Amino acid sequence: SVDCSFSRGVCDWKQDADDDFDWNPADRDRGDGYYMAVPAFVGQKKDMGRLKLLLTDLKPKSSYCLIFSYRIAGEKVGKLRVFLANKKTAPVWEQNKGKDERWRTGKIEIFQAAETTNNVTFESERGKGKTGEIGVDNVILISGLCPED
Asked: Which residues form the MAM domain (predicted)?
C-alpha cells in the first residue's frame, strides 16, 4: 500500500493551475500533522478547486483501492468530487453534505485497463454557505479490491 497522506506521504500532489482557488493545509485538532482543506469563505458559489494526486507505477490490468478520509462541515458548504484521469467527464465519487462534522471514509475502486490511470483529482465546488470547510486526509492506495467495511 502507498501512504499519500499529506503530513508524511511519499506521493506527488499538485494544485491545478486552471481552477479558481487552491486547497490549503489545515492543522489537525490533535496537532499531529495536517490535512488539506477548502474553507467555506474561499471563492464564489460554483468556483472549483482541484488537487491532483499523480500516480506512477500502477500496473496495467490490475485493481487498486483508493481509501481516504473526508469531511464536509457546514451548511451548504459545497461538493467534494473525485475524478480518475481516464474518466474525465464524470466523477467516480461525489458527496455534497455531511450528516454532521465528523470525518468519514471514502473508497474508490480503480480498475486498470491497458492504459493506466495516472492521476486522481479531488475537486471541491463552493456552495452558498459561508462557514465550515471541505477537507481530505489519509489518502492511501492499496493493491487489490476495496475491503468490505
From this structure: 2-148
Mean pLDDT of 123-135: 92
Domain that residue 105 falls in? 2-142
Question: What would the pLDDT profile of 9-52 be if each residue is shown by its tens digit?
Answer: 668 899 999 999 999 999 887 777 899 999 988 889 999 999 99
Task: Tell me whether residue 110 is in a domain.
Answer: yes
| C-alpha distance across the termini of the chain, in Å | 18
In a domain, 149, yes or no: no
Q: Is residue 135 part of a domain?
A: yes
Give the C-alpha separation, 82 to 50, whole Å. Answer: 9
Number of structural domains in the chain: 1
- Coil, helix or strand for 85? helix
Rounded Cα gap, residues 9 and 11, in angstroms: 6
Largest CA distance in the chain: 44
Q: Return the number of other C-beta atoms located less than 10 Å from residue 45's C-beta.
A: 11
Q: What is the pTM of this model?
A: 0.90
The residue with cell 460554483 is 46
Q: How many CB atoms lie within 10 A of CB 103?
A: 16
